[in-house]
Amino acid sequence: MKTIQQQTTQTIPGLTSMKLPSFTFIPRLLSLAALVFIVTALPHSARAQGPGSVDTSFDPGSGSNNFIVFSVAVQTDGKVLIGGVSAGVARLNANGSVDTGFDPGTGSNFVVVTVAAGVGGKVVIGGQFTQFNGVPRSRIAQLNDDGSVDTGFDPGSGANNTVNAAVVVQSDSKVIIGGAFTQVNGVPRQGVARLNANGSVDMGFDPGSGANNTVNAVVVQSDSKVIIGGDFTQVNGVPRQRIARLNDNGSVDMGFDPGSGANAVVASVAVVGADAKVVIGGQFIQVNGVPRSRIAQLNANGSLDMGFDPGSGTNGGVIGVSTQSDGKVIVGGNFTQVNGVMRNNIARLNTNGSVDTTFDPGSGANNAVYSVPTQTDGKVLIGGGFNQVNGVTRNGIARLNGDPAGTPPASQLLNIAT
Questions:
Q1: Phi, then psi, of 414 in degrees rounded to 5
Q2: Is 27 exposed, middle or buried (0-12, 13-18, 19+ CB in 10 A)?
Q3: Rounded to an integer, what distance in angstroms lies between the CA atom of residue 238 and that of residue 129?
Q4: How many Cα atoms are found within 13 Å in the side-chain-facing hemisphere of 230?
Q5: With contact defined as beta carbons under 8 Å apart, do 277 and 299 qualify?
Q6: How many angstroms separate the CA atoms of 186 and 188, rounded?
Q7: Cβ proximity of 109 and 131 under 8 Å
Q8: Whole-angstrom distance between the N-terminal and C-terminal Cα of the chain?
Q9: Residue 401 pLDDT > 90
């Protein structure tokens, strides 16, 4: 597959070793043509407005044909952050229009892979860039509420390779990052690191020799433990096949043991509710020796949750996952079916892993979906390489309707992936 070239060669998170199509994703227009025609031929009032349908009240207009959205995050005020190709980062109002009060200037000089909502309206971004609006920032930066670079957050020489995931710890403004790096500001940190509120490396979070390969996804539990997913097989010398949990000090949490783990890349991770179960998505077809095609749920101790069975799973890679407060799971990626049910690149699963047929995106997204955060009202934002969702023009970003009563998420993954 194609890779993005910089000082080093890296793939976008969630695509590492997944062998998915390049950024010129080929829409499956032939297979969808008839269905799209039927849907678009109907008058607007006749189209379904139930869960999974396109929320027409969120209208990003023509968007940008060059803006592939790899990461979407929701701020506490309802505004939406998007990161990807083109200017790198933008902020949208709750109705989808561009927030002109957020001006990143010339933006990043290369791809923004992950975007996270910080404290007080600040925005953390990670990726493959080395400058932002002319200010040196190597692969990690924090922006002010107006889009300017926050000079009070200075990571020094930054990460020496791609940052695939970033999560802001809201209680203390610290930032946890995952990626393909081996150093952060000259300090050895392989695949995962924590930064202080001023951007310096937090020496109190020490993962030792770290992950022995790329970290694609990071999520922080309510108890401050950190789940990481990627393409690694060891963390600080401890066997951990592509999924692990770290303690607050960075050490491997031995109480979370996934056994033989996932047999291929984990692209995305999310935590499910108070039970602290963990949903993983990627390119794997087995988890701890049990068939699980690209989507699985683990118990709080790392064992496979046998009560969550997605059947034949997805027929293509899962790149983004998020969870709702009711335990249902949103999955996005590069698939056309989930357990035999037609679902183009976006679907919702019930708590037992079956396809939730009440969430119906119609013909779905006509290209890959990378990020699937859920809003507090239960609506679902999707970012990706698409330009249509169920026949409605949406360039890279769209919002889908949720359940009428709204189902706020217990947690959500703020990267691509994934």
A1: -100, 60
A2: middle
A3: 32
A4: 35
A5: yes
A6: 6
A7: yes
A8: 17
A9: yes
Q: For residue 276, is pLDDT > 80?
A: yes
Helix (H) / strand (E) containing 405: none
Distance CA 239, CA 242 (A): 9
Q: Where are the beta strands (DSSP E) in 163-240?
A: 163-169, 174-179, 183-184, 187-188, 192-195, 215-220, 226-230, 234-235, 238-239
Retrieve residue 272's tokens: 């499910």
The answer to whether 267 and 17 have CB atoms below 8 angstroms apart is no
DSSP string, 71-122: EEEE-TTS-EEEEESSSSEEEE-TTS-B-TT---TT-BSS-EEEEEE-GGG-
CA count, 13 A, side-chain hemisphere, 399? 28
207 φψ region: left (φ > 0), alpha (ψ -120 to 50), beta (else): alpha
Q: Which residues contact 100 (CB under 8 A, 6 or more apart)?
A: none
Q: How is residue 315 written in tokens? A: 């027929």
Question: Cα-atom radius of gyration of the chain, to the nearest Å?
Answer: 19
Q: Is 133 left (phi over 0), alpha (psi -120 to 50) or beta?
A: left
Partnered with residue 282 across adjacent β-strands are 266
Q: Residue 68 is encoded by which pair of tokens?
A: 């592939």
Closest CA to 218 of 285, 180, 167: 167
Write the pLDDT tens digit of every residue in 320-342: 999 998 999 999 999 999 999 99
Report CA-CA distances (Å) from 185 to 161, 194, 250. Answer: 11, 12, 18
DSSP 129-148: -SEETTEE--SEEEE-TTSS
The DSSP secondary-structure symbol of 355 reads B
> In 3-state terms, what secondary structure has residue 218?
strand
Alpha helices in 131-272 (DSSP H): none
Q: Does 1 score more than 80 pLDDT?
A: no
The pLDDT tens digits of the residues spanning 112-170 come to 999 999 999 999 999 999 999 999 999 999 999 999 999 999 999 999 999 999 999 98
Distance CA 220, CA 366 (A): 32
